[in-house]
Amino acid sequence: MAWIALVFAGLFEIVWASAMKQSHGFTRFWPSIITGLGMLVSFGLLASAMRVLPLGTAYTIWTGIGAVGAFVVGIMVFGEAMTAMRLLATGLIISGLVLMKLSTTG
Prior knowledge:
Structural class: mainly alpha
Largest sheet: none
Distance between the termini: 10 Å
Number of helices: 4
Order of helices and strands: HHHH
Oligomer: single chain
Number of domains: 1
């Protein structure tokens, strides 16, 4: 159950990061509200997962899901560049997440 909470925490991190981009520095109302609510849900789920999972594992997986997800949203929604170097960097992040999961019991 902790792993499920952690995955959803990471997904909500993608939501709030994307909404923050659209808030234009918190000058737009609805994206700002979505950012705040997404943060609350994301942090709450992360805190729940940390009751069982080690700090290093939970935080690494959470930030990794957010980083990779934000990268994908940036390309697909905001038209950011998809270069070979950025893809390699993302692949390395994903490799690190897989290794962290494999090295953790619980």
